[in-house]
């Protein structure tokens, strides 16, 4: 059993330092919800377009949008992946902060690296999201 546990002051300091990563974790969770909602809309539209019979001349032209929808879905899938990676890294960061405080270990460099890498994953996710939005707003969405 450990006899030298962290003091209340040390734990409150770790909790206050974990607040920013915890807010980032919440933001990433909300962002993932937005990404998945957009992905679900693409899937629904793809299912609808695939249900149009080939002999329906009036609506079969809408099927030309399918490759673009696949491209958007691929970008959103990648964005979700990187947002989840960022979330996992932030979760690990918070655990590391508490474990290292409990064992009285220095953690500044490790936590900094985890934070930087998680922000890199989040940035990658945002870039994929921006690319998907740009494609979504192209001229093809103005079909009747």
Q: Can you summarize this structure?
A:
Helices cover 78% and strands 0% of the residues. The protein is an all-alpha fold and 144 residues long.
What would your notes on this structure say?
This protein is mainly alpha-helical. Helices cover 78% and strands 0% of the residues. It has four helices and no strands. Helix 1 runs antiparallel to helix 3 (66-102).
* Beta-strand share of residues: under 5%
Q: Give unreliable regions as ranges.
A: none
- The topology string of helices and strands comes to HHHH
Structural class: mainly alpha
Helical segment count:
4
**Number of E-type strands:** 0
Radius of gyration: 22 Å
> What share of the residues lie within helices?
over 70%
What is the 3D form? Answer: rod-shaped
Sheet with most strands: none
- Average pLDDT metric: 87
N-end to C-end Cα span = 70 Å
Secondary-structure topology with pairs:
Layout: H1 8-50, H2 57-60, H3 66-102, H4 108-136
Helix pairs in contact: 1-3, 3-4
Which keywords apply here?
144 residues; mainly alpha; rod-shaped
């Amino acid at each position: 059993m450990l006899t030298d546990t962290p003091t209340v002051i040390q734990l409150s300091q770790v909790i206050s330092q974990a607040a920013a990563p915890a807010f980032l974790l919440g933001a990433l969770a909300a962002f993932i919800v937005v990404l998945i909602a957009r992905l679900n809309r693409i899937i629904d539209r793809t299912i609808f377009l695939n249900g149009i019979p080939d002999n329906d001349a009036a609506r079969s032209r809408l099927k030309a949008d399918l490759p673009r929808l696949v491209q958007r879905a691929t970008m959103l899938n990648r964005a979700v992946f990187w947002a989840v990676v960022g979330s996992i890294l932030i979760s690990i960061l918070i655990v590391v902060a508490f474990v290292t405080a409990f064992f009285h270990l220095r953690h500044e460099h490790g936590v900094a690296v985890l934070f930087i890498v998680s922000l890199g994953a989040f940035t990658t996710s945002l870039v994929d999201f921006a690319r998907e939005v740009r494609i979504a707003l192209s001229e093809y969405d103005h079909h009747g």
